[in-house]
C-alpha cells in the first residue's frame, strides 16, 4: 500500500523521468520502437495524473482526522476541470466539506453545487450532497430550495440512519412552515424511527416533540 501511495504521490515526476529516459535512449542508443514501452508508460502516468489525480491518497488522513494533510493533497490538484467527471464531483464534494469544517458556508455551497451539477456515480453520495445543500438553504431561510434538496436527498437515498433522521426532521420543519401539519407529523415519525444517537439530533427531536403533538392534523 505504501508503495502504491508513493507511485500516486510522485506519478507525474516519475512519468516525466521515464519520458526523459526514453528520449535519451531513443537518441543515443536505439530507435523509436525499442523504447516505445517507456513512452507508453510515461504517457499513461501523465494522463492519469491529470484525469484521475491523487484523491486516493486522501482516504487515510481523512479517516484519521489529519485535515491539514488532506488540504495539502487537495491543493496539489492544479487543474480540477481536467479530472474525469466522477472524480471531479468527488473533488468538489471534498472541497465543500472542508469549507464547512471551517464554517465557510459561502465556499461550501459553491463547491457542493458544482458537485451536485456533475452528479455522482453513487446515489447515496449524491443524496448526502443534496442533504448538505438543504441544510445550508435552511440556514439562509430559503425553505423552497431546502424542500427541493431534501426531497431529492430522500429519493436518492442516504446511507446512514443519522443523516436520514436529519433529512426527515428537515422535511418536518419545512412542512410545519407550510402549515401542512399532517405531513409534518409523518416526517417526524420517520425521523424518530431512525433512532438517531447523535446528541444534536436527539435534542432536536425532543424540542419538536414538545409542541408537535399539540398542532392540528
Question: What labels describe this entry?
Answer:
75% helix, 0% strand, mainly alpha, 12 helices, 217 residues
How is this structure best summarized?
The chain has 217 residues and is an all-alpha fold.
What can you see in these coordinates?
The chain starts with a helix and ends in a 5-residue tail after the last helix. The protein is elongated. The protein is mainly alpha-helical. 75% of the residues lie in helices and 0% in strands. The chain has a domain of 53 residues. The longest helix is centred in the first third of the chain and has 18 residues. The mean pLDDT is 91. α6 runs antiparallel to α7, α8 crosses α10 and α9 packs antiparallel against α10.
